[in-house]
Amino acid sequence: MFTIKQLIGKFLTKKASTTTSPEIAISASTNEPYVQKFTTEPYNFKTITVDELFQQDAALWDLYTNEKDGFLIKNFLSEEEVDKIMENFNKALNDNPAHTSVGFTYPPIFAEFSSKLRNASNEEKEIEVKKYFEKTGHFNDNFSNMYNVDVRTRMEKLFRGIAGGREINVAETADGKGNYPFATFRYLLPDKGLMTVHCGNYFGKTFGEFYKDLAQKVAVKNQMSYFIMLNEPEQGGELTLFNFRWKDGQTKVDNMEDNEIIQPDGSKMYVEDNPNIIKDKIKPKKGDMILFQGGNIWHRVETVRGSKPRITLGGFIGVSIDKTKIYYWS
Q1: How far apart are CA 110 and CA 14, in angstroms?
Q2: Contact 114, 209 (CB under 8 A)
Q3: Domain limits of the chain?
Q4: Over the stretch 18-70, which tens digit does the pLDDT of each residue have?
Q5: Residue 204 CB-half CA count within 13 A
Q6: 3-state secondary structure (DSSP) of residue 62
Q7: In sequence order, what DSSP letters do the residues of 99-127 get, joined into one string?
Q8: pTM of the model
Q9: Residue 282 · residue 289 · CB < 8 Å
Q10: Domain 42-329, classified CATH 2.60.120.620, yes or no
Q11: How far apart are alpha carbons 167 and 320 in whole angstroms?
Q12: Distance from C-alpha of 13 to C-alpha of 93, rounded to nearest angstrom
């Protein structure tokens, strides 16, 4: 485990990664060994200010191509700005958020949207899609008036400054029926809330109804993740990065599984028990933004402890198929 202070010193310069002895399993179908490599160095994850990040004008492309792993951006929002948002948070609480066993999201995230469409008739799908985009359109257009901070404009300024000259857009449907939310609130319950081990590339295989539309415009593989910390838990709630990356064919038995990852050859890896696995824990403070290669790096949010919930605002970023634009959504 590394503290933020240790991370600051450790990631001022990028080091060449080395690997431990790999875990090898023999595929029953091909008799060929599948090798999962683990880095012995923590990820290239820098603590940085907004002004310092603006000096890296292609940082998003570097994240997309795995040249960089992530940033903890200090004070992206001031404490006063976060307080303004939280003073109006009841507007999300009172507008039918998508509840789960560990908390809720607002507006509903893609998982909730996909689940409603999965077994729906064509007529039902049309109704749900219309309702969804009416809600996300209102959220996108009225966020600054509802919460008294223009977070979307601030985010677009940041993304534009590190996009290597690429155009920045909130992702929209392939048929132009609406825009996805630019971000979502995620509320994790105290002493219960967590986000199980996952990566964005796993989501791409799991929530097909959502991604099959998005993938018509966005190269969703190796999408990036971002979130702003609005309410810190008393304990727990850290972002944990595991020192291995996505391999095509990896999966889990279900979304809530938090230990076992099934490898491409059918063998199983256990993130809690494997001695090769390093857990780097990143704990942003109020107003900090995390921006990282969440599509490729397996990660999770640890269980929130204490009496305070963990509340964030965030989403995902991807490069257009023709590589000329940047899209973001949640």
Answers
A1: 34
A2: yes
A3: 42-329
A4: 344 455 444 444 455 666 777 666 688 899 999 999 999 999 999 999 999 99
A5: 23
A6: helix
A7: EETTEEEESPPHHHHHHHHHT--HHHHHH
A8: 0.87
A9: no
A10: yes
A11: 10
A12: 43
